[in-house]
Amino acid sequence: MGLDLVGFGSRVLPNRVGHAADRRHAGGGAATCHGFFIDTRRRSNLMTTLKDGVVCCPQDGGGAASTLCASGPSETASRSGEVTADLGRGIADAITSTQRSSAGRNKGGRSWRRVPTGGDKPARNSAPRRAPVRKDTQVRRVLVNDDGVNAILSGVSRESSIEECNSVLIRLEKHSDVKALDFFIWMKANGKLEGNADAYRLALQAIAWKEDWRRAELLLHEMVAVSGCRLDARAFNGLIYVCAKRRLVDWGTKWFHMMLERGVQPNVSTFGMLMGLYQKTGNLKETEFTFTKMRECNVKCVNAYSAMITLYTRSGLFARSEEVIVLMKDDEVTPNRENWLVRLNAYSQQGKMEEAKFVLQSMVDEGVVPNIVAYNTVITGYGKVSDMEKAKEVFDNLESAGLAPDETTYRSMVEGFGRADKHEDAFSYYRKLKRSGFQPNASNFYTMINLTARHDDNEAAPEILRDMRAAGCQCSSIVTILVRAYGAVEKMHKVLPILQSCFYKKVLYDAISCSILVTSFVQNSLLEEALCVLREKKWKDSDFEDNLYHILICSCKEAGSYEHAVRIYNLMPKSRTQPNLRIACSMIDVFGTMERFTDAETLYLELKASACVLDMIAFSVIVRMYNKAGRPEDACLVLEDMEKQVDIVPDKYLFLDMLRTYQKCGQFEKLTDTYYLILKSEVECDEAMYNCIINCCGPAIPVDELSRIFDEMIQLGHLANTVTLNVLLDIYGKAGLFNWAEKVLNMARKHGLADAISYNTIIAAYAQSGDFRSMTYFVQKMQDAGFPVSLEAYNCMLDAYGKSGQLEEFFAVLQKMRRAKCDFDHYTYNIMLNIYGRKGWIEGVAYVLSELKSRGVEPDLYSYNTLIKAYGIAGMPEDAVKLMQEMRIKGIDADRVTYSNLIAALQRNENFLEAVKWSLWMKQTGVVGVGTRA
Question: Considering the entire predicted model, what is its pTM?
């Protein structure tokens, strides 16, 4: 069921007359009665119903009655509506009965009473569920005893006037919100609230202190709809006052906007409380809105102007704060002392000291005597502009003004001289501050430490550190300030001697201070000092120590000081039962960067042999290490171990390493599996991931899938790099998808990504397909793009023309190569050997061999395979056999193609017995696989 008009639960309990206890003070054993519960299950003709959120009786014509509070202390009075002469005493007895019954209850205990309807079992006292109540930092109410409540309520009866009831309500509200609300409910039940706006205001403020905002909203509605009261600013001010006291910005703003929506005119108090609330919480947006509404309502609240100026000044919006000062003059608002001070602060904070002096003089002219706060503000302003002569003049004039410097005065002088970098003056006022019985604040300590660092005052530094320690500063905070100050002036080497002269032993016993100090030394490349502290430390915490060493090693790694990282690692205690996974991974990465792969692998094997369970980061580091070492096969073995741990979910970087590893090893099946694993994972593909997938997985996945992933990459706005586009050109060209290949090339040219390899790739594709016209076209395009025809392109044309039997074009290309002074490579000579050999031109073959040797280039396996085949075609099997012997002498291992060509040459020349011998020899040597074809 819902809420009644005053926000209480409309649930009616089954006991005759029960007490609703406020549990705010349950911890102390005191319970306060909220009212009475009416028994709806009694055997009587009286039936209560819920009508419009109010418990009503059919007999009284639907008139509203309180949900919780009965109109009299007895059953007879409840039924007949009659009130006895001692009604006030009955109310007092009801209000205090629960407090008396629970006075002796232990903290955290529960009160019990017997149900009057029968039975011996104790029943727990029931109460409606209430909104949580905030605990005030200050006691707002003075509790009264039972006699006090009796005295307040003794003169109240049903015949009492509204003014008399309001007087009682005011007195109760000053003592207890709960008692005041109970009496308010009694007033409501007895018709004392009709047109009684004052009672509603008091009840609203009492509800506000309990932060029962839903109930307050309903009560505002009841105030107008039921009691016929007119809403005004005072009704809302009680709610806003509580919000301002407790810094409840959202609720304060809500009540203010509700005022405006209902056409209620805010008054000076409304704006003063709201602006004060927003100033405390720094809510600039709502402050500006409220300030604008205040001026629209023609309300002049000097505190609101002060709050606006203060908030703009605090936000660094000095121009706006000056605009508010001008608006204040235009609105003819007379400043008070606080407003003069915020004006003075607005100018002083931005260093406009002439304007600040004018404000100070105007303050005197208006009869407002400047206090010490005003002079402190001026001193602070001069300190901000480093005009310490003027600041000292103001300080010296304090005595003539009848004022004595306070701690803020001395602190401001210290800060000002520190900003002006006047070390001796700052130290003088620092000591005056202490002699005057005041204590420096954190800003003073920070300023003095920075001054001693800049001026190399190593004697004063220990004194300041001891003062900080005496002021209760944590050892870790002191060390932090010290290392920052000396690190900023690159004098970190002075820190250790300074600490050793005061409380170095405390640092050695404090793990946090020690870690801050050591980390700072390492970051400033003071390794010897760091190692010294690590050797002398007195604290024992293995987990913290591991974390510290890990941080130090990572700091060295990030700075590129790998030797320092190794020295720190070697200093670690070696009594660990098992290696630390994080440290071991960091050191594997360090050793890998230093190319000390043996040490890195040793660490990995130690991890593998220990009880440590490798995680995703560990596998990623190890795989990367093996790839750096040029051992992708070992990296594949690591990845196989990773696959056995089903809980490992690779991240983007590990996926990239996996793709590159499998590509280097030519494991196309693994590449395909990894590609589809990436698609199923939640890894977000970025530009690097798309490029890597296409580069590595291009030959391993279907062309349609490759095109889909490429289109997806372009649609997401990612740009393919040159390597990716060249891979696509190669795959599309080999697949005969020349339209797609040309689109990719056009895209590469459009974005300036096409290089010589791009043109070589498409030229080679057309050459292999026998499309000589397109091949020639792209050779010309290559030249038009500013690239000279490369040796690779010439080789493609040579091979294509030679294999197609177009020897004129073959020799024409050969002549172009010679005119272009191209340096022939093995591939060029092998093409010539292959073409000449096919034609049986032994003289041409001999010429190519002599030219090859004249250039100091020895034939490779492909060359020998081609020559053996050529000798077979020319009917020279003996020379082919001699080539086999020459290969053995030169240490070139024959492959299956070599043996196949030799056997074919022997068979072609009817040397079948010799061919059988070589065939048997090939099987005995175990030659398998496909070699380099001629």
Answer: 0.64
